[in-house]
Amino acid sequence: MKGALLVAGTTSDAGKSVVTAGICRWLARRGVRVAPFKAQNMSLNSYVTADGAEIGRAQAVQAQAAGLEPVADMNPVLLKPGSDRRSQVILMGRPVADVDAMEYGRLRDLVRDTALGALDRLRKQYDVVICEGAGSPAEINLRRGDIANMGLARAANLPVIVVGDIDRGGVFAAFYGTVGLLDADDQALVSGFVVNKFRGALGLLEPGLDMLRRLTGRRVYGVLPWLDGLWLDVEDSLALDARRVGVRPPHGRQTLRVAVVRFPRISNFTDVDALAAEPGVTVRFATDPAGLDDADLVVLPGSRATVHDLAWLRETGLAGAITARRGPVLGVCGGFQMLGREIVDEVESGAGRVEGLGLLPVRVEFAAEKRLGRPTGHAYGRPVTGYEIHHGVATVEGGEPFLDGCRQGDVWGTTWHGALENDAFRRAFLADVAERAGRDFVPAPGTDFARLREERLDALGDLVERHLDTEALLDLIERGPHPVPVLPPGAPTAG
């Protein structure tokens, strides 16, 4: 088979990423050569490909669902917000500018050509490309320059399905309103809907689905049930409020309590997913000193705005709570930089010389060129692989070496993301943390994080196979957009 599909959503966090991953896994299991694609992604969770390109973390997981090594073509445009008004623009895995919304508009032609070129290459290389939209296709104020949703669909003549999160409420109005706000040419590409996260008896939902079909003239491709405990690498901090924080029964007599500082510009918080997967480890996110109470381990994760988030730590009182605590602390990337003695930043914030928390003998200076890589090494006598994404270059002036960073007493710091996904290293690290925290916690010997992620991808593939009309989906992918009615009144033509 040959073809493509765009998975759009009524809102951010409606389920586009997981539905795209599920369709990729379902098709790959059928023997289809399938690849994921997201033309433009705004996310602080990113990943480094084997050739050193930075892409959205969700596209890396979708590539895994398809059985592929991630490449830059899968996410040719990545925007990483550094403030409410400015973002770093990454094209084909390399940063090219730091702009506000108006300045970004001047890059419109370059962004469009970059995205369409990447999609064209993927369509030539693979049988099927499953594209993920961004936000909602009904952001009519942004339609003129759009290349992530209907702008992409129009340019490449892609059929579109719209995913809605029924758990939030108002899903029928969201479906109808999404289509109704589009102009006639955009509406012609929207083929139908997928209801996501449904709980309860399907019979109670059917009258609404029937009315939606009559009102829009479009089919419902299926209803995906709520699946508890199904987590995947997410796009942004919207999903943190509903993040899985449950604990599997401990292997020893006690649990290990982990508190993760939730910075305003938190990035790559997926680093702690491997901790949450460990039996007996609880993970919570903290925004004030009380959130660190009784924590056996405090984690300072990555940050897209290191100096600004360090100032936030001081404003909230978290900085004082961290420096005063007597117990294990781990800093990753931006969090590691904050733990040092001094930060010199003329690049990201322009703040110049800033005092760090002083818990590690480290001096950090921001370089203009971003460092991207897939390093390997050893810690606790175990092999460790990871990936690094940072402007800040750390000079270690003491302590013990630790994954390109250092350790001093009960404080560890590293620039490496993904290190905790290495099972043997993670268990050794947690055993050390437990001993230092005085907890009777024993890491379970059999936890395989990579296998757990594969199991979740298989669960997504199962959801698609069991709960969506897969024959209709195959037909849509192969034949392209089907004739559908236009809903009045429609939005003004975008031009």
UniProtKB/TrEMBL annotation:
Function: Catalyzes amidations at positions B, D, E, and G on adenosylcobyrinic A,C-diamide. NH(2) groups are provided by glutamine, and one molecule of ATP is hydrogenolyzed for each amidation.
Classification via PROSITE patterns: GATASE_COBBQ, GATASE_TYPE_1
Species, as recorded: Nonomuraea pusilla
Domain named CobQ/CobB/MinD/ParA nucleotide binding: residues: 6-230
Matching Gene3D superfamilies: 3.40.50.880, P-loop containing nucleotide triphosphate hydrolases
GO BP annotation list: cobalamin biosynthetic process
Domain called CobB/CobQ-like glutamine amidotransferase: residue spans: 257-424
Active-site residues (renumbered): 333 (nucleophile), 417
Pathway in which this enzyme or protein is active: Cofactor biosynthesis; adenosylcobalamin biosynthesis
Family to which this protein belongs: Belongs to the CobB/CobQ family. CobQ subfamily.
UniProt keyword Iron, yes or no: no
UniProt gene name: cobQ
Protein name: Cobyric acid synthase
Record's keyword terms, sorted: Cobalamin biosynthesis, Glutamine amidotransferase
Any one Gene Ontology molecular-function term assigned to this protein's record: ABC-type vitamin B12 transporter activity
InterPro entries membership: Class_I_gatase-like (IPR029062), CobQ/CobB/MinD/ParA_Nub-bd_dom (IPR002586), CobQ_GATase1 (IPR033949), CobQ_N (IPR047045), CobQ_synth (IPR004459), GATase_3 (IPR011698), P-loop_NTPase (IPR027417)
